[in-house]
Design a protein that fits this description.
Layout: E1 2-5, E2 17-22, H1 28-34, E3 36-38, E4 44-52, E5 68-69, E6 82-87, E7 91-96, H2 105-118, E8 123-130, E9 147-151, H3 161-164, H4 171-182, E10 187-193, H5 207-228, E11 236-238, H6 240-244, E12 247-248
Parallel strand pairs: 2-7, 2-8, 8-10
Antiparallel strand pairs: 1-4, 3-11, 4-6, 5-12, 6-7, 9-10
Helix pairs in contact: 1-5, 2-4
């Protein structure tokens, strides 16, 4: 698995902070980053990337392409499937706006780790909505119920015994968390509770879509605060109006549990 520019050439320089969002159970990680607006004086540049997989191609191509687009007409691609948005030298946003297959989860995490470490990134931020182990209480989606994990250096080691014992029921987010923790990469995970989105394709947003939009708002607002607090002047803010222009063009399937008798990583 590799991350590369669609038109070839070296990857753009990643800033001191790298935020990563994926198509989680609610799509909140992607929509949160799509709703980020640069602070005054910060210039955003969008780079169209692609994930090159070594896994066999699927005969069913229904999962291919960007999930969230600005135009509900799916015949016209309006958002990259994978993009890197650079905001000066301080922050980059890696937006994985496509479904990640289970066979690619660990490889995607390794590719993100390589991107961050090769650029000398100071801190990685992993954003997502997920279902945590309900027996441990989980999270309900409100900002006060969010799960924030910080690890990788002594100054930010703030995990509690309770949160450390919870299971991250999302294959991609779990793999990202696992590889960053295993390599002691300074990382902040910002997770809120989410649910599977149903009722897609209508002229008006379904109630499920509206709830997912609220989940993205909670996540985006909290994540922007954490990113800005990581050092220096504020570089980004979450704009719910901008995020609301993106709707799902097709359904996606976030992996929320590991099949039995497998060695897939779940933190």
């Amino acid at each position: 698995m590799a991350l590369r520019l669609k038109n070839g050439g070296p990857l753009p320089k990643v800033g001191d902070r790298l935020a990563v969002g994926t198509c989680d159970v609610s799509g909140a990680g992607v929509r949160a980053l799509l709703g980020f607006v640069p602070a005054d004086g910060v210039h955003a540049v969008v780079h169209d990337l692609e994930l090159v997989s070594l896994a066999p191609a699927l005969s069913d191509d229904s999962d291919v392409g960007a999930v969230f687009v600005t135009d509900h007409d799916t015949t016209v691609p309006t958002a990259p499937s994978v993009s890197l948005v650079t905001l000066g030298d301080t922050l980059s946003l890696l937006i994985v706006n496509q479904q990640v297959r289970p066979a690619d989860e660990a490889a995607v995490a390794a590719a993100v780790y390589s991107m961050a470490t090769d650029a000398g990134c100071g801190r990685v931020f992993i954003l997502g909505a997920l279902r945590l182990d309900e027996k441990r209480g989980g999270v309900s989606g409100g900002a006060h119920d969010a799960l924030v994990l910080e690890f990788g250096d002594a100054a930010t080691e703030k995990e509690t015994n309770e949160s450390d014992s919870r299971t991250i029921r999302d294959g991609t987010l779990a793999a990202l968390t696992h590889v960053m923790r295993a390599t002691s990469t300074p990382t902040t995970c910002v997770f809120v509770g989410g649910h599977r989105v149903v009722g897609l394709g209508g002229d008006e947003e379904s109630e499920s879509e509206k709830e997912a939009a609220e989940t993205a708002r909670v996540l985006g607002t909290l994540a922007a605060e954490k990113i800005n607090n990581a050092g220096g002047a504020p570089v980004v803010r979450f704009d719910a109006t901008v995020a609301s222009t993106y709707r799902a063009s097709h359904a996606w399937r976030a992996t929320t549990g590991a099949p039995e008798n497998t060695d897939r990583m779940y933190t």
